[in-house]
Design goal:
Distance between the termini: 43 Å
Bound molecules: adenosine-5'-triphosphate
Number of strands: 13
Shape: globular
CATH class of the domain at 96-299: Mainly Alpha
CATH architecture of the domain at 96-299: Orthogonal Bundle
Radius of gyration: 26 Å
CATH topology of the domain at 96-299: Transferase(Phosphotransferase), domain 1
Oligomer: single chain
Strand content: 5-15%
């Protein structure tokens, strides 16, 4: 790919910013000119101060984007920080995402040959990613980008995971990441972890999304989507209107949407499915889906305006009370609140929502696990019991420190100006190219330098995103207004995401919000950044993923997530050992009591009492766990020492800095 050979400047002043072309949960994307290369690019801007707790996600995205090299994957050209923003420079994909194209011109989805062509390209990208040990974890139409010539690239590695993280290729993941509608059941369940087969599920959901114009369950709030995905039979091409689709398409979707991940094909195998014989060339895509489309920026603006209108209409129709309910509902869901009372309240709101929503969902013929698969059945099951069951199905994980966001990127340039913590002006983008340079320079000056890593992050008003655009006929359960002023200008910046898109991050400034973000010690904490996202410490007995060994200049704060993860992991392992010891004690054979004593006293000599096979197995597990506990403690110790050293360096540097200033 040509982009890898060119040297893209890593300085904001070398780019002229044009119009906004996309928004996600965590980022805004702009079209821009790379002045020295005279090339149009797209720049994704992430506000590091607002991406609470998602240092790992951002780092992963930047790393993955720079390392991948495949024609169907969006590779970054370069990335750098300016003020508290991270800029990721990428090739500009002028067609925008498939989601945007559908919303603009194909509200009921694409024709089958188009779908086959798009999906084959995405699948090629997945084959590459999986072969290199990556799980994408966010495959959906919004992340399939189309270029002017019909070429396709899969984007957004914000939640991708590397299977080699801990040096173990086969390791399943135990993190809770993704976008609800596209999320595989095993990812939601968090029982046995998951692997690259989770992408195959999302791929199947994406196929349905491209066929219908929206993902299954997309009109439901996130909690409901989780319930439905877990309880209902997998969705498929079973609608009356799906008769137009070929058997091979239906087969391909059915192969992906099997609840048991082991029964899903690998991406490589799926690529050989007869359905992809219908795939055509990029040329064909250009003619069939790009023809007549207005420029990306215009489309984006129109779609946003439409969303804002919908929101205003909703306000008029349902009033503030309902909006407040929705807000409360989304807040609970977004924060993945395990407070039972809150969840019950949320469940009540789900029912409320259902009553007014227009049910057009399918009655699938196949039943799985003896659970009814039609929506009205699922609706009637919105009981407290379900919520309690669901609550027990999910694990909760600790959250990295807020401060950990800083200092992650040592690729900084241009961090020049100074600003107070409360000063966080948005980047103002002029539509006139000639004005760009001045405006941008001013902005950069305003954005300022982050003086201290210890500085408390005081987020400005949250710019709520609208990445996934609502189907027109759907009343938004997810778009809401703040408690504050509700003028249109504010609306623009506070539109929530569709539930068919990632769940919106909610600023935790409400007294009613009972979830403690940083309460690591209780282990009941969930990290969340727009998606359900619970990472770092997992319940797997395997070693936690450590941040790479810090290099000089990496702030000590960035080690905190690893340390927390190790601590958490330690606790989990300790509990596991205790549990095993208890279970040895409870083994009915007369010998087991003795065996437990041996274990408890650290004496593993079982020679005098012949152990049962179960005791042997438990014993060896205990030994393994003890060993790994030991090595974790060692790692923790090392990390602590490094932390101390780095903190010292850091404070020296800060002193030096303040002297210079
Ligand atoms: N290189 C690009 N060229 C054109 N449009 C782009 C490009 N990158 C992103 N976009 C547009 O911007 C939108 C948001 O970008 P992106 O998905 O990377 O942000 P995000 O915050 O990671 O989103 P998500 O909500 O999926 O997590 C995309 O859906 C797409 O429409």
């Amino acid at each position: 790919m040509g982009t890898t050979k060119k040297k893209y400047p890593v300085n904001a002043k070398d780019y002229k910013l044009y119009e906004e072309i996309g928004e996600g949960v965590s980022a805004s994307v702009y079209r821009a000119l790379c002045v020295p290369l005279n090339e149009i690019v797209a720049i994704k801007m992430l506000d590091l101060e607002k991406c609470n707790n998602d240092l790992d996600g951002i780092r992963r995205e930047v790393q993955t984007m720079s390392l991948i090299n495949h024609p169907n994957l969006l590779q970054s050209c370069c990335s750098f920080t300016t003020g508290h923003k991270l800029w990721v420079v990428m090739p500009y994909m002028s067609g925008g995402s498939c989601l945007h194209i559908m919303k603009s011109s194909f509200p009921d989805g694409f024709e089958e040959p188009v779908i086959a062509t798009l999906l084959r390209e995405v699948l090629k990208a997945l084959v590459y990613l999986h072969a290199h040990g990556h799980i994408h974890r966010d495959v959906k139409a919004g992340n399939i980008l189309v270029d002017f010539n019909g070429s396709i690239k899969l984007a957004d590695f914000g939640v991708s995971a590397c299977m080699f993280d801990a040096g173990d290729r086969q390791r399943s993941r135990n993190t809770f990441v993704g976008t609800p509608c596209w999320m595989a059941p095993e990812v939601m369940q968090q029982l046995h972890g998951y692997d690259f087969k989770a992408d195959i599920w999302s791929f199947g959901i994406t196929a349905l999304e491209l066929a219908h114009g929206h993902a299954p369950f997309s009109k439901y709030p996130p909690m409901k989507v989780l319930l439905m995905t877990l309880q209902n039979a997998p969705p498929g091409l079973d609608y009356e209107r799906d008769k137009k689709f070929s058997k091979s398409f239906k087969d391909m979707v059915a192969a992906c949407l099997v609840k048991d991940p082991k029964k899903r094909p690998s991406s490589e195998k799926l690529l050989k499915h007869p359905f992809f014989k219908h795939a055509k060339t990029a040329d064909y895509l250009e003619r069939s889906i790009l023809d007549g489309l207005s420029p990306l920026g215009d489309r984006f603006r129109m779609l946003k305006a439409k969303e804002a209108d919908l929101l205003v209409q909703n306000k008029e129709l349902y009033g503030d009370k309902d909006q407040l309910s929705q807000q409360e509902y989304i807040k609970g869901i977004s924060a993945w609140n395990f407070n039972l009372e809150d969840i019950k309240n949320q469940a009540a709101l789900i029912n409320e929502y259902d009553e007014i929503s227009n049910l057009e969902e399918p009655k699938t013929s196949n039943q799985q696990n003896g659970i009814s698969d039609n929506y009205s059945d699922a609706k009637s099951q919105d009981t407290d019991d379900e919520i309690i069951n669901l609550e027990s199905s999910f694990a909760s994980f600790p959250t990295p420190s807020l401060q950990a966001l800083k200092g992650c990127f040592d690729i900084c340039e241009d961090d020049v100006a100074t600003v107070s913590p409360t000063e966080q002006p948005p980047v103002q983008l002029s539509m006139k190219a000639s004005d760009q340079e001045t405006d941008k320079d001013d902005d950069i000056k305003q954005l300022g330098r982050i003086k201290s890593l210890q500085k408390t992050s005081i987020p400005g008003p949250r710019k709520y995103m609208s990445g996934s655009l609502l189907p027109d006929n759907v009343r938004s359960p997810k778009k809401l207004m703040s408690n504050g002023e509700r003028d249109l200008h504010q609306l623009k910046f506070q539109v929530e995401r569709s539930s068919s898109g990632p769940i919106q991050h909610i600023q935790r400034n409400s007294l009613t919000h009972s979830l403690s973000v940083e309460n690591v010690s209780e282990g009941a904490v969930v990290q969340q950044k727009g998606r359900f996202r619970v990472t770092e410490a997992d319940l797997s007995p395997k070693a936690p993923v450590l941040n790479p060994t810090p290099t000089i200049g990496v702030p000590a704060a960035s080690l905190l997530p690893s340390l927390q993860s190790i601590l958490q992991h330690n606790t989990v392992q300790r509990e596991e050992i205790l549990r095993l010891i208890k279970s040895v004690e409870q083994t009915p054979s007369s010998s087991s009591g003795n065996a437990a004593e041996h274990v408890e006293t650290g004496n593993s000599d079982f020679s005098q009492i012949p152990p049962t096979p179960r005791e042997r197995e438990l014993h060896s597990q205990v030994i393994q766990l003890q060993q790994s506990l030991g090595s974790l403690a060692e790692q923790l110790q090392k990390q602590k020492m490094k932390n101390v050293q780095l903190e010292k360096k850091l404070s020296d540097l800060m002193k030096q800095n303040s002297i210079e200033e």
